[in-house]
Amino acid sequence: MGDLGKSAAATALEPRPRRIGVLGGTFDPVHVGHLRGALEVAESLTLDEVRLTPSARPPHRDTPQVSALDRLAMVECAVVGVAPLKVDDRELKRDKPSYTIDTLELMRAELAADDQLFLLLGWDAFCGLPTWHRWEELLQHCHILVLQRPDADSEPPDALRNLLAARSVSDPLALDGPSGQIAFVWQTPLAVSATQIRQLLASGKSVRFLVPDAVLAYIDAHGLYRASN
Ligand code: ATP
User: Fold this and answer.
1) Domain 17-149+157-190 -> CATH class
2) How much is the pTM?
3) HSE-CB for 187 with a 13 A CA cutoff
C-alpha cells in the first residue's frame, strides 16, 4: 500500500471526536421541559449523549422531604430506555458544594482533546451566568447551547453582551472544535417548571403528563412534595 492509501486507511479508522452534552439542574423534580430539551438537542445536534447532572442544592433551597438521593432516583427513572440520555451523579457524590466549572474540568480531563463538550442551559440559567463561580472560564472547557424557553424574550444582562458578540454563532451545527462558542437552539416550548410541579403536588393536584409516568410513580410511592409530609 502506498503512502497515500495508508493515510486514507488510517484516517478512516480514527475515531471521530465524541460529542457530549451536559444538562445540570436541581431536578426537583425532573420534568418534561428538561427531558424534551435534552432529547431534542441530542437528536438535532447528533450528540453521542446528554448527561443529566443533578446538582447539590444550596442550603437555602433545601426541602427536607426530598433528598438528593430522591432527586437522583427520579432522574434515573426518567431516562430508562432513552438511549442518548444518561445520568451523571458526580456532583452529589462530593462532600463540598460543587460548581459547574469543577464538573466541566473533571469531564474534560476524562475526554480526548478534540472531543466536544456542550453545556446546555435554559435561557433563565444562561442569564444568571455572571453570578456563577469562575463563569468566564466555562468556555475554555465547553461550548454553550442556550435552550429557548417561552420566557426567552427578555434581554440578556449587560455582562453577557460582549461575550455573545464575541462568541455566538447563529447555526448550532456550525459549532467548531472542542469548546469556546455559544449557540441558541430551538426546542419545543414547554412552559413547565419544577416550582409549578411542587406547587401542584403540595395542593393535592395531579402532575400527570408533566413528568414521565415512572417519575410520577416514584413521587407517589415515596409521598414526595405532598403537603402532609
Ligand atoms: P425550579 O422551578 O425549581 O427553579 P426548573 O424547572 O427551572 O426548577 P432546574 O432543575 O432549575 O429546573 O433547571 C435545570 C436546567 O433546565 C436549567 O438550565 C433550566 O433553564 C432548564 N429548564 C428548566 N425547565 C425548562 C423548560 N421548561 N424548558 C427548557 N429548559 C428548562
Assistant:
1) alpha beta
2) 0.91
3) 30
